[in-house]
Structures are given as C-alpha cells and as structure tokens.
Specification:
Oligomer: single chain
Largest sheet: none
CATH architecture of one domain: Orthogonal Bundle
Strand content: under 5%
Order of helices and strands: HHHH
Number of helices: 4
CATH superfamily of one domain: lambda repressor-like DNA-binding domains
C-alpha cells in the first residue's frame, strides 16, 4: 500500500464587508446649509454639543450622524430633516 497524498490546504475565502444600505444623509448639503447660515464648524458643533472635528467628518462623508444628531443639526440650521437628505437617485 502506498502513502496517500496529503489533501491540498483549504483556501480561505476573503472576508466580505457587510453591505450597508445607501445613506440618505447628504454631507455636501450639510456644508452648504452651514455656510448659508453663516456658521463656522466650531459654532455649529458648539450649538449641538459636538466638536468641530465631528462636523468636519460629517461634511467630508467620513462619518454619518446618528438620527438624534441629524435632528440636532437640522434644528441648529433651522431646516427640516429632509433638507439634509440626499436627493433620490443621487450618489
């Protein structure tokens, strides 16, 4: 009896990142609304209890605000939540 050849090593499948639903939040609109309101990032942040870095990250699309934070942003900018939403079909 001959020796059996060892089975080839199993290849691991690459891990896939979980798919996230497309965001309804529009970071560009946030920036435009802030500038229209003549507020600095620091002033808007202070009004809602965040840091200017947080506002910058939202405006650059690095982070998305929670629902509660989005409500605070809309209130501080005197707009509705819909004003912070991305237009349907826009990417």
């Amino acid at each position: 009896m001959g020796k059996k050849k060892p089975a080839p090593p199993k290849q691991k499948e690459p891990k896939q990142k979980p798919r996230q639903a497309p965001s309804a939040f529009d970071s560009v609109k946030l920036r435009d609304l802030r500038l229209t309101a003549e507020l600095s990032q620091a002033a808007l942040a202070a009004a809602i209890g965040l840091t200017a870095t947080d506002i910058s990250r939202y405006e650059r699309g690095l982070y998305e605000p929670s629902f509660t934070t989005a409500v605070k942003l809309a209130t501080a900018l005197s707009v509705t939540l819909d004003a912070l939403k991305r237009a349907p079909g826009a990417e």
